[in-house]
Amino acid sequence: MTDLQSYKPVSLSDIDSAPETQFPELNDEQKALAAQYETISGRLDEKESLTLLNDGLRTSTFLTGNQPSKADLVVFKAVLPVAAQWKDTDKIAAYRHIIRWADLVQNTLVSVPDANKLVVDHNVELPREVKEKKKDKKDDKKEDKKDDKKEETKAKEEKKAGGELTEEEKKARAEAAKAKKAAKAKAKAELNAKQAATQAPPNPAMVDFRVGFIQKAVKHPDADSLYMSTIEMGDEDGPRTICSGLVKHVALEDMQERYVVVIANLKPVTMRGVKSCGMVLCASKDGKVEFVNPPPGSKAGDKLFFEDFNGTPEKQLNPKKKIWEAVQPKFTTTESFEITYTEEGKEPKKLVNEKGEPCKNSTLVAANVS
After folding, report:
1. 159 vs 26, 153, 178, 352, CA distance in Å?
2. Does pLDDT of 142 surpass 70?
3. How far apart are CA 70 and CA 257, in angstroms?
4. Which sequence ranges form a coiled-coil region, renumbered to this chain (predicted)?
5. 332: domain range?
6. Residue 159 within any structural domain of the chain
7. pTM of the predicted model, to two decimals?
């Protein structure tokens, strides 16, 4: 792990403007992980979000591994006021990994006024953490043996009560036991097949890429780094509000009345009191960020997809399945500024509309797209 003494603590109020360059460069997987946790930090009022964050920190010193990143600062700022309310032992025990991480951050990376610091009592004895064990094939075999034993016991008891069973009774009982076991095996096989069918590997067809038209954008009233945009996306119930962290990268006037590419089926998140229902797709490299532009002549609501992945998107991406986190690291831009998805050992697939016309950014080559 990097020597934490080499980091100069950032003031709590300066976290949003803190440079990412003071931290080690993240790989694509770590960038996706950082983006996931920053999204989660916008909905800490949900128990599921706290559980995901706590489980993620169970085996990691920091959010993206054993080295700190800008994400640790951003998420810490959101977690601090929430964690300060955890007073009872059960709450502290449930989120022990978040508390451990937050205490490390406030003592190494962030300068927090004493009045705002998270108070951590290291002498409190917490109950042992219990991890739920997954049931495996050995457990199934044990269950089968238990059933067999029950049948034997039942037979012995009946024999004791009514004397020896006839051959026909013995045969009937054996067939009944065999049928019961077969029915149980069939039911289990059907359940496994159903689960396998619903657990297709993550792919871009599950993501709802759409053309959006920004009707109007304003600065978020409670977040210096965020814009609030009203975006028409072809929904029956009208435009959506989407928050984007683009203040440092795009001038407000360049956010007005323009077409963009939007991810439409991410789970809505509350960002500083504003519910954000989607994400504007951008290309970024070396600190520069620019929009991914839909093909000329596009209309709000037009479907976009990567070649060979023109399927029916999920109604809403389930954060637990990590579909976005699995596919996003494979997005990039070409020398001709086209947006592509590349699986290992396969040809890149372009992000296109129904006519096969590609989406493009403006100047960045080999950029991260998210």
Report:
1. 71, 10, 20, 74
2. no
3. 32
4. none
5. 204-369
6. no
7. 0.53
Among 116, 134, 160, the domain-final residue is: 116
* CATH number of the CATH domain containing 103: 1.20.1050.10
Query: Is residue 7 exposed (0-12), middle (13-18) or buried (19+ Cβ within 10 Å)?
Result: middle
Sign of CA dihedral 8, 9, 13, 15: positive
Look up residue 213 and give its two tokens: 């038209």
Which tokens belong to 85?
A: 């309310």
Q: Please answer whether residues 305 and 209 qualify as being in contact, where contact means their C-beta atoms are separated by less than 8 angstroms.
A: yes
Does 28 reside within a domain?
yes
Burial of 337-356, coded b for 16+ CB within 10 Å and e otherwise, reads: bbbbbeeeeeeebbbbbeee
* 108 and 241 inside one domain: no
Kind of pairing, strands 110-111 and 10-11? parallel
Among 313, 310, 311, 296, which residue's Cα sits nearest to residue 351?
A: 310
- Structural contact between residues 272 and 226, judged by C-beta atoms closer than 8 angstroms: yes
Residues 344 and 211 in one domain: yes
Tally of structural domains, the chain: 2
Pairing of strands 209-219, 303-306: antiparallel
Q: How far apart are CA 160 and CA 35, in angstroms?
A: 68
Which two tokens mark 308? Answer: 């060979």
Tell me: the pLDDT tens digits for 234-266?
A: 999 999 999 999 999 999 999 999 999 999 999
Give domain status of residue 161, yes or no. Answer: no
Neighbouring C-alpha atoms within 13 Å toward the C-beta of 91: 9
Token pair for residue 168?
Answer: 């026909």
Here the tokens at position 351 are 């992000």
pLDDT digits (tens, 9 = 90+) for 146-202: 666 666 666 565 555 555 678 887 788 888 888 888 888 887 776 765 555 456 689
Q: Is residue 123 part of a domain?
A: no
| Nearest in space to 109 (alpha carbons), one of 65, 79, 60, 76 | 76
Phi, psi of 54 (to 5 degrees): -65, -45
